[in-house]
């Protein structure tokens, strides 16, 4: 078995492999120098800085930037994008659901895909329950598909009790003085 055919042991290299590598490196350097010389003849100087993926104009950390872009970067860095979008929907409630529905309802909270809406009367609460599917679709158009999965509707919480024929106001009468 010759030296080139036997398995290499202990990091042993063949002379032919080393020579081929050295010749390849030298050839690559020569071609790079030739390309730089050709570019210099054409008036094109090689880049001094490596290329970077450009998302926009390069900005130094102390340079001013647009307010909207700064807020968007802050929201993205902190993971607040969804919360800000939900807050935007709550702030634009009349534009999203229409003035009639907005006059009698308001969004109360958003948690785990569920929007809680408070209505000012039981009639409007029933109306919103009937419109729940349409409302989920409309909210998902604003927030992104799948953000809202359910609408929960609450009726009036602390409405005054109605007075009527079965209500007695005032004292109980003469029985108050006995025993």
Mean pLDDT rating: 75
CATH class of the domain at 69-154, named: Alpha Beta
**Total strand segments:** 3
Give the biggest beta sheet. 3 strands, mixed
Give the structural class. Answer: mainly alpha
- The unreliable regions are none
In summary, what is this structure?
The chain is mostly helical. It is built from 7 helices and 3 strands; from the N terminus they run αααααββααβ.
Give a quick set of tags describing it:
GMP Synthetase, Chain A, domain 3, mainly alpha, about 180 residues, single chain, 3-stranded mixed sheet
Question: What's the structural blueprint in terms of helices and strands?
Answer:
Blueprint: H1 15-42, H2 67-78, H3 81-91, H4 93-97, H5 99-104, E1 105-111, E2 114-119, H6 122-130, H7 132-143, E3 150-154
Parallel strand pairs: 2-3
Antiparallel strand pairs: 1-2
């Amino acid at each position: 078995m010759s030296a080139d055919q036997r398995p290499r042991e202990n990091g042993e290299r063949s002379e032919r492999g080393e020579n081929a590598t050295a010749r390849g490196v030298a050839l690559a350097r020569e071609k790079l120098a030739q390309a730089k010389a050709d570019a210099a003849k054409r008036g094109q100087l090689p880049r001094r800085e490596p290329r970077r993926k450009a998302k926009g104009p390069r900005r130094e950390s102390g340079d001013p930037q647009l307010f909207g872009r700064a807020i968007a970067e802050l929201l993205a860095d902190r993971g607040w994008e969804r919360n800000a979008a939900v807050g935007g929907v709550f702030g634009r409630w009349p534009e999203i659901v229409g003035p009639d529905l907005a006059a009698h309802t308001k969004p109360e909270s958003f948690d785990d895909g569920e929007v809680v809406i408070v209505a000012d009367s039981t009639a409007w609460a029933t109306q919103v329950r009937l419109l729940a599917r349409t409302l989920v679709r409309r909210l998902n158009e604003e927030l992104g598909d799948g953000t809202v999965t359910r609408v929960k509707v609450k009726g009036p919480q602390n409405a005054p009790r109605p007075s009527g024929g079965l209500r007695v106001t005032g004292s109980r009468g003469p029985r108050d003085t006995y025993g």
